[in-house]
Amino acid sequence: MGAETDGWESASQRSIANFDEDSVSMAVAAAIDCLKGYERQDIDGLLFASTTPPYAEKQCASIIATALDLRRDIFTADITDVLRAGTTALKSALDSVAAGSAKHVLVVASDNRQGAPKGEAERNSGDGAVAFIVSNEELIAEQAGSHAITENMMDTWRSAGDQFVRSWEDRFAIEEGLERIMGEAVSGFMEKEGVFVKDVAKLALYSPDARRHSQLARHLGFQPEQVQDPLFGRMGNIGTAFPLMLLAGALEDGSPDQLLLTVSYGDGSDVLGFRTTSKIGKARTGLGVSGYLDSGQVLDSYETYAKWRDVWLTDSSSRRPQAQSPSVTAMWRESDQNIKFHGGVCNQCGYVQYPSQQICVECQARDDSTPIRLSDKLGTIFTYSLDYLAGTVDTPLAVVVVDFEPGGRVLCMMTDREVTEVQIGLQVEMSFRKLRVVNGIHNYYWKAVPLRRAA
Q1: How much is the pLDDT for 284?
Q2: Is the distance from CB of 209 to CB of 296 less than 8 angstroms?
Q3: Residue 262, class by beta-carbon neighbours within 10 Å (0-12 exposed, 13-18 middle, 19+ buried)?
Q4: Which of 220, 215, 213 is nearest to 185 (CA)?
Q5: Is the pLDDT of residue 130 over 70?
Q6: If pLDDT is split at 50, 70 and 90, which confidence band does 68 have?
Q7: Residues 6+ apart with CB under 8 A from 169
Q8: How confident is the model at residue 160 (pLDDT cuts 50, 70, 90)?
Q9: At 411, phi and psi to the nearest 5?
Q10: Which residues of the chain are in CATH 3.40.47.10 domains?
Q11: Does domain 320-450 have CATH number 2.40.50.840?
């Protein structure tokens, strides 16, 4: 949302997740971008950090690992319930690789926290996810020390059942929380590692808003040119992922032999240091932080956002019968085609079918196909329909038939689209999205989205 968004009443922009996105779907998107150019079967572990996981009792990292089509014999974990979970996950991955228990660990942090409507928390927050591969090979940055402080602090919290983030009085939260705890953490890191403020090239610093961010940086002794752009007014505070997103931005803009610090906050503070190597700055295939920000679209109205989040507006669209609970047995049985998004390629003639079939429709070969992952393949729209009566949250419901470049065809929904751009021949990519939630079951599938390009 931005200044052009009707009813937003703010000159600042913030990132928002679509109605069919959550912390898991955004984590999958960030991980796909991070994994471009890497062999997915080399990943030995996946750590997912979030304060807004869709499940209170069920591992979300397993959903993400399946959607990414990673090996089954990897370790996975959810790290949650505190804003510094992202740096905790990153430190855990670094320790695993250093100890030799894993060679390549994927760390994904993702959040879509909600503040009260039209309030300061809502204006300063954002939705987003970021991913890193931690390894001892082809390094763009090496770990350069760490320091942590843990302290029970009731300045920002959200109890079970709360829809919105709560906070205590500002002066207490700033002076006794952010300034004191983060100051102790940074000074402790400096003393422990034998470095000084002047040695730091970029500081990726957590803060709830832009004003406090500049105050905190000055309080810690850093000059403006040393501070990584916090992207307030463009992205906002994306919770657990925020300090890691700023670190990713610093790595995108970095040059060799720079000391980068990322500082998180939440019931204490983590400080992680990294020294860039000569490999930084090499061309990459993913969009990265800047690419995703440049390719964003502005939402038309705050009313649409409120409807997506079910905040305070009622939906007056067509009513449909209550959706039936999905079959857990069927979801498990069809996981390869629905979550991994596997088709089948005939070993006799090379014809691709989705979902995979027992008999090839091209050459009639029987039981002779190999799975092919279509989730990372580009496609084009063969035909489409726009349904204005479906009662969907995002009217009209766009249903498209997609032909993939290696072959194969799928009928699916299309999201993140402007109605005027839906046309035959449009190039699309696949995105992992939430279909619905019934009886506490989050049902995910893949949808087509216009191929994202930086503006």
Answers
A1: 66
A2: no
A3: buried
A4: 220
A5: yes
A6: very high
A7: none
A8: confident
A9: -100, 120
A10: 23-304
A11: yes
